[in-house]
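Reopening: structure tokens for the magnesium ion complex, inputs below.
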Amino acid sequence: MQGKIIKGVGGFYYVHLHNDTDNDLLYECKARGVFRNQNIKPSVGDNVDIDIVDREALTGNITAVCERSNSLIRPAVTNVDQAVIIFALTQPKPNFNLLDRFLIMMSTQNVDTVICLNKADISQDDTGTIAVRAYEAAGYPVIISSVYESRGLEQLRELLHGKTTVLAGPSGVGKSSILNWLKPDAKAVTGEVSEKIKRGKHTTRHSELMCIDVGTYIMDTPGFSSLYVADMEAEDLKNYYREFDNYSSGCKFNGCVHIHEPDCGVKAALDGGQISRLRYDNYVNLYNEIKDRRKW
Ligand SMILES: Nc1nc2c(ncn2[C@@H]2O[C@H](COP(=O)(O)OP(=O)(O)OP(=O)(O)O)[C@@H](O)[C@H]2O)c(=O)[nH]1
Ligand SMILES: [Mg+2]
Ligand SMILES: [Zn+2]
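Re-run output (same inputs, fresh job):
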């Protein structure tokens, strides 16, 4: 039988069989055979072969781990098809610099990202419009959603279909609320940001996938408030701003980084409004951060 490791606890791996229509039926498995034959430690997300030991007791043995398409470290999960990064349009106010950091981080790991901007029901300004324009131009799908008005969530469900997705984002933006909407019996804890921090709820949690439909898995992750952009040459940062590509042919200098150089096609597009100010400012900001770090 073939299945997917959903979680690992105390030497046991919990495996959901690929074609099982009961999303919550898990086999408790040991992995001795895998160590003997392949010498690898199974991970959440792995597709595995299992021998069923007892159908009633739902126990089995993992006999083989299929080749991984990728392997993330934080959260620890393999075979990720995409990430959905959730921010709120307001409460808390979105930090687009943090969003860019996340996009770069996923891109360095070859994971596609979908952007979801939640709490549209209480957004009073044009943050959504500006962000949609900026990030769609950069090549990312953007969904505007509201859990309270069930808006955008069917569109999100379609994007998740048949894939393994990591849900990420800062605290309080509605990640768990969205998870509960997608899978009402998930009963993920939601609540006021301040209260949760008081109770110290943000301690480490086990990585755990949830099956929301045959072949569709998601992983909720704890909120984060800062991200360190991977070590790279500052000159390479521009490669993560795909919307610059259309204009860099207008740059006079080879290897132009679009900051202080004269006759820069990207800066011309910025002045002309084709490139978003929001994205460009984040770019300069991160560029300087990487440069400074290198100096030290
Ligand atoms: N107005 C509005 N409030 C929302 C929406 N979605 C979630 N909330 C509220 O926002 C608060 C935080 O939601 P959670 O789902 O707990 O947020 P989270 O992202 O899981 O937060 P952490 O677990 O701390 O990372 C709760 O009070 C939710 O009821 C929405 O679409 N609109
Ligand atoms: Mg949560
Ligand atoms: Zn340039």
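Residues 118-119, 121-122, 146-148, 169, 171-177, 190-192, 196, 222-223 surround guanosine-5'-triphosphate (ligand 1) (CB under 6 Å). The radius of gyration is 22 Å. Marking as resolved unless the reporter disagrees.
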